[in-house]
Design brief:
By secondary structure, the chain is of the alpha/beta class. The protein has two domains: 147 residues, Enolase-like, domain 1 (2-Layer Sandwich), CATH 3.30.390.10; 238 residues, TIM Barrel (Alpha-Beta Barrel). Helix content is 37%, strand content 17%. The protein has 14 helices and 16 strands. The strands form five sheets. It has a seven-stranded parallel beta sheet. β12, α8 and β13 form a beta-alpha-beta unit. The radius of gyration is 20 Å and the shape is globular. The structure holds 2,3-dihydroxy-5-OXO-hexanedioate and magnesium ion. The site of 2,3-dihydroxy-5-OXO-hexanedioate has 11 residues, from loops. The site of 2,3-dihydroxy-5-OXO-hexanedioate (GLR) has 11 residues, from loops. Keywords: Lyase, Magnesium, Metal-binding.
Length: 429
């Protein structure tokens, strides 16, 4: 068996995205992703997926060049290769990232986000070569399916007039009744039993009312609210007090570990994060201060599936829960998330996934949610197959774009409808 990588293909694509609202603004009608393929000397192809904005592409290309000749089993070596690729310092902020929703942005985190796409592609190829599913390469599954939660968004019915965009049939959700209606559709279509509302869009009282309406419509179901750090400590404490008895957890109510620690100290509501703990370096301060009770891992920016397992082990050591964060992603990443989630013993919360919002995919067959769960595939590798025609079509869209959509920019999308819009200063409320 020759596991040497002889070819690497990088295909940037633009994927349709509905008009979802968050505290930055509005999702653009198309969002960038990068599809990674590694091909071994034996002709086995593995696929991976990661962020597709320009900064990631700039790093992925030289990384891919260096990978030729390495073996798909050299997973630890991927980090060594990544360290050899220089990151242009002007491309990272060393502060909260430009998208503003995923915590600090550093050169290392950028590297890890690129590595993750390649790690998944290598695991897929290795699994196919050995006839083993990815979860077996990660030590074996502990469950046959993984629970996901319905990811509710405040939403417009359509993208702003004049913006070329696909259509969706979800309708608008701009008040408690609209949110409950969206949640009902999620349960009808996918069987989800827990719900997360993306907050930070409307004043907290309106979002409190939406959660209360959900609690009334779905009594006893786990509920979460995530304003992406839009609130002050005082506001966070007030919301936690109002919603304490219905929330499973409150996600990133305030920005940064010190603020989260203060909120945690003053309320009994567990706090989750995908913003103040997004790297191993951020763990000691957050865990010793008791700032978070659940870390939402994202294998993209934590550096892959095996780093996600390591994160879960650290969380277990400190008695901190673990679950998964999600951004706009396709079926390759959902398959990867499902494989790793199946191997994590201390996964006690349903994971986030944007996948239901993505009407387009690059797979021959979409992954299905049944009772809110995704079955863990036992087929070799990830258990997914690329649809090359779909991939080519979405790549064509990327090629045809004049550059406006090649970097995700939710504030720019909002400015089309509201020219005065600027990313709100934090805390907003
Ligand atoms: O905090 C989170 O869960 C996210 O940031 C997830 C996504 O980025 C979501 O907020 C979005 O895409 O608008
Ligand atoms: Mg979040």
């Amino acid at each position: 068996m020759n596991l040497a990588i002889t070819d690497v293909r990088l295909t940037p694509i633009l994927v349709a995205d509905p008009p979802l609202l968050n505290r930055q603004g509005l999702h653009q009608p198309y969002t960038p992703r990068l599809i990674v393929e590694v091909v071994t000397a034996d002709g086995v192809t593995g696929v991976g997926e990661t962020y597709g904005d320009a900064t990631y592409l700039e790093l992925a290309a030289p990384f891919a060049e260096r990978l030729k000749g390495c073996r798909v089993s050299d997973l630890n070596g991927l980090f060594t290769v990544a360290d050899q690729v220089a990151v242009d310092a002007s491309r990272v902020e060393n502060a909260v990232d430009v998208g503003g929703l995923r915590g600090v942005q550093t050169a290392d985190k950028l590297r890890l986000s690129v590595v993750s796409g390649f790690e998944v592609a290598c695991l897929d190829a290795l699994g196919k070569a050995l006839g083993l599913p990815v979860h077996a390469l990660l030590g074996g599954k502990l469950r046959d399916s993984v629970a996901y939660s319905a990811y509710l968004f405040y939403k417009w019915a359509a993208h702003p007039d004049g913006v070329p965009a696909g259509k969706d049939d979800w309708g608008a959700a701009l008040d408690p009744a609209g949110v409950v209606e969206q949640a009902r559709r999620f349960t009808e279509r996918y069987g989800f039993t827990s719900f997360k509302l993306k907050g930070g869009v409307f004043p907290p009282d309106e979002e409190i009312a939406a959660i209360k309406a959900l609690a009334e419509a779905f009594p006893g179901h786990p509920l979460r609210l995530d304003p992406n750090g839009a609130w002050s400590v005082e506001t966070s404490v007030k919301v936690a007090r109002e919603l304490g008895d219905v929330l499973e957890y409150l996600e990133d109510p305030a920005l940064g570990t010190p603020a989260m620690a203060e909120v945690a100290e003053r309320t009994g509501v567990p706090l989750a994060t995908n913003m103040c703990v997004t790297t191993f370096a951020e763990i000691p301060e957050a865990f010793t201060k008791g700032a978070v009770q659940v870390v939402l891992s994202d294998h993209h920016y934590w550096g892959g599936l095996r780093n996600t397992q390591q994160l879960a082990a650290v969380c277990r050591t400190f008695g901190v829960g673990v679950s998964m964060h999600s951004n706009t992603h396709l079926g390759i990443s959902l398959a990867a998330m499902t494989h790793v989630a199946a191997t994590v013993p201390n996964l006690h919360h349903a994971c986030d996934s944007h996948y239901p919002w993505q009407s387009e995919d690059v797979l021959t067959e979409r992954l299905a949610f049944d009772g809110g769960r995704v079955a863990v595939s036992d087929a070799p590798g990830l258990g997914v197959e690329l649809d090359r025609e779909r991939l080519a079509a979405l790549h064509r869209r990327w090629l045809d774009d004049d550059g406006a959509l090649r970097d995700r920019d939710d504030a720019a999308a909002m400015r089309v409808a509201d020219p005065q819009w600027v990313t709100p200063a934090l805390p907003r409320w």
